[in-house]
Amino acid sequence: MKIMVAVKRVVDYAVKIRVKPDKSGVETSNVKMSMNPFCEIALEEALRIKEAGLASEVIAVSMGPNQCLDTLRTGLAMGADRAIHVDAPPTLYPLSVAKLLKALVDVEKPGLLILGKQAIDDDCNQTGQMVAGLLNWPQGTFASKVVLDKEKQVATVEREVDGGLETLCLDLPAVITTDLRLNQPRYATLPNIMKAKSKVIKKVTPQELNVEIKSDLEVVQVTEPPKRKAGVLVSSVDELIDKLRNEAHVI
Fold first, then answer.
1. Residue 68 maps to which CATH number?
2. Which end of the chain, C or N, has fewer beta carbons within 10 A?
3. What's the domain range around 179?
4. What percent of the chain stands above pLDDT 90?
5. What is the number of structural domains in the chain?
């Protein structure tokens, strides 16, 4: 069984986000970029499934300009067998990504598609659900535990919900999106980083996949959130209670 994992290149989580002066988006020039943390978790889970003997190949997929190759090299260094780069515009919305993933699934025929539950740059949390709908595959979102049964061809997904834990049993092939508690991603070692340079990265275009890239969305303006007021030290519990009673509603 093949496992396909979607990985996204985003502004590194440790970087302070800056909005462009014209408010058209977030500044990405000369900014450290890295793999989306939830995508790292998805790739780690795929690698663990392969290491357990339940999969034969892990394929990393990324979409966007040529800079995505760095993200794919990181995925290969972590242990992915090969990678696919969809050469596409830098701004892709979830439905376009879902359509591209569906087209790649039709070509590669994986038994499992794993994605991070969301990307930290847009927080859309839509792609996994959309591609499951397009493929008509069962889906397990926000997975905190994944167990595969190779003989029965099912995946058991444990997910956190407001009321506690929910367990789903999915017939394969299926789509799974990963939550933070699923695992701790590994670091790429120097030998594996060197080996990754010789691994194959296949390049395709949306046109070759017969997918039209368009969006019904338009970003009107991007602005920074209002700055929070500095905290205030109080000298006593009585003063704290007084402030909570009389000033807590002030933002």
1. 3.40.50.620
2. C
3. 2-220
4. 59
5. 1
